[in-house]
């Protein structure tokens, strides 16, 4: 079944298109490689009154076992265009973009571009701003939705604007950084405006010759013998840390068959943190306070999980917790989505019972 220049597939398995590898079929599926093809796919869904799901790199989703009874549009808009923009009196440059050079580099990146390939390209050109986000699976279009962050950096620090299709107004719109509602692992795209926008292209502002960002304990420790690392050296260090935790997709590593960190680090009020400290002290424990987390009043979700009866390598049939990272729920082979969700629920329940803290999952749940 097709529209002009657009191939619409039917009953397409979705599990192979995700890093977690679970889930059923899409009733209809299209791989949209241009803005025009995205618009054609949307017309197809509208004409048939089909529910719509937008799929990127598949690294942050859990697809239900029954699949998705609508149209899945996989965004494959590619291409990277580079241009120089003046720093002086340019309000579009994110305030966190550091450095004193009169110009910075703006890169217009298609939503379908592989995220780590973009990071690798930026680092190879000595453009700073995303080096600590190396090795994160998925596509560029997913980064503003989750406000992807790791090792002291977040994409909101470098995003200038987002080009998106507005499903309410039925037109393509450009949203500036301040319009995106960025906060910790959150944006307007997955909160107040959830389901309204389809990301087509993202513009990042990067700093030529910038010094790398070193704000995270693991990274500082690995590079302690190198006080002035290059961007490339920081990237390699991040990749080593992520591989050690099973957080780099590798077919030979069963611990990488996951959706990455399954839970967000909770943000507590000062009163909540004081209460938590009292409870842990009464049990002879200390809540770890890492500088990168404390700046945002966050605590370690991994610590909460580990101190609620779970551990690396914990198994429950075909699902379990990674042998390398307590926050990664992994598919050990042949797992179902319902088994993934059951382990999620058990972890949430036991952490809340033990510490009074509710863990929020990071992945998007589709078809449940």
Give a concise summary.
The chain has 368 residues and is an alpha+beta fold. The protein has helices spanning 35-47, 115-124, 143-146, 217-222, 231-244, 270-282, 291-294, 301-306, 337-355; strands at 2-3, 6-7, 9-13, 25-32, 52-55, 61-63, 68-75, 80-86, 103-110, 127-128, 149-150, 153-154, 159-166, 171-176, 197-208, 315-316, 319-321, 329-331, 364-366.
Write the layout of secondary structure elements.
Blueprint: E1 2-3, E2 6-7, E3 9-13, E4 25-32, H1 35-47, E5 52-55, E6 61-63, E7 68-75, E8 80-86, E9 103-110, H2 115-124, E10 127-128, H3 143-146, E11 149-150, E12 153-154, E13 159-166, E14 171-176, E15 197-208, H4 217-222, H5 231-244, H6 270-282, H7 291-294, H8 301-306, E16 315-316, E17 319-321, E18 329-331, H9 337-355, E19 364-366
Parallel strand pairs: 4-7, 5-7, 6-19
Antiparallel strand pairs: 1-2, 3-4, 8-9, 9-15, 10-15, 11-12, 13-14, 13-15, 16-17, 17-18
């Amino acid at each position: 079944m097709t529209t002009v220049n657009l191939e619409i597939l039917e009953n397409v398995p979705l599990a192979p298109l995700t890093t977690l590898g679970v889930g059923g079929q899409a009733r209809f599926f299209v791989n949209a490689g241009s803005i025009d093809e995205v618009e054609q796919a949307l017309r197809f869904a509208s004409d048939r009154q089909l529910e719509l799901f937008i799929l990127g790199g598949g690294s942050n989703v859990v697809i239900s076992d029954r699949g998705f009874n609508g149209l899945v549009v996989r965004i494959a808009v590619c291409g990277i265009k580079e241009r120089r923009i003046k720093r002086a009196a340019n309000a579009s440059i994110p305030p966190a973009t550091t450095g004193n050079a009169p110009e910075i580099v703006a890169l217009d990146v298609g939503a379908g571009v592989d995220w780590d390939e973009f990071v690798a390209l930026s680092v190879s050109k000595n453009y700073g701003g995303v080096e600590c986000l190396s090795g994160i699976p998925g596509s560029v279009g997913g980064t503003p939705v989750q406000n992807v962050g790791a090792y002291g950096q977040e994409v909101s620090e470098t995003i200038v604007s987002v080009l998106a299709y507005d499903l309410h107004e039925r037109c393509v719109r450009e949203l500036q950084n301040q319009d995106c509602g960025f906060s910790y692992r959150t944006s307007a795209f997955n909160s107040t405006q959830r389901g309204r926008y389809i990301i087509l292209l993202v513009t990042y502002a990067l700093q030529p010759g910038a010094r790398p960002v070193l704000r995270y304990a693991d990274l500082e420790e690995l590079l302690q013998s190198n006080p002035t690392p290059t961007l490339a050296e920081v990237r390699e260090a991040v990749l080593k840390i992520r591989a050690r935790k099973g957080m780099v997709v590798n077919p030979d590593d069963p611990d990488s068959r996951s959706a990455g960190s399954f839970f967000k680090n909770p943000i507590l009020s000062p009163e909540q943190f004081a209460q938590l400290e009292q409870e842990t002290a009464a049990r002879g424990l200390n809540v770890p306070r890492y500088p990168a987390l404390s700046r945002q009043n966050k605590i370690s979700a991994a610590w909460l999980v580990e101190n609620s009866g779970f551990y690396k390598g914990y198994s429950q049939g075909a699902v379990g917790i990674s042998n390398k990272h307590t926050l990664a729920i992994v598919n050990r082979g042949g797992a179902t989505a319902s088994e993934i969700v059951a382990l999620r629920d058990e972890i949430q329940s036991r952490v809340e019972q033990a510490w009074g803290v509710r863990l929020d999952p990071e992945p998007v749940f589709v078809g449940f």
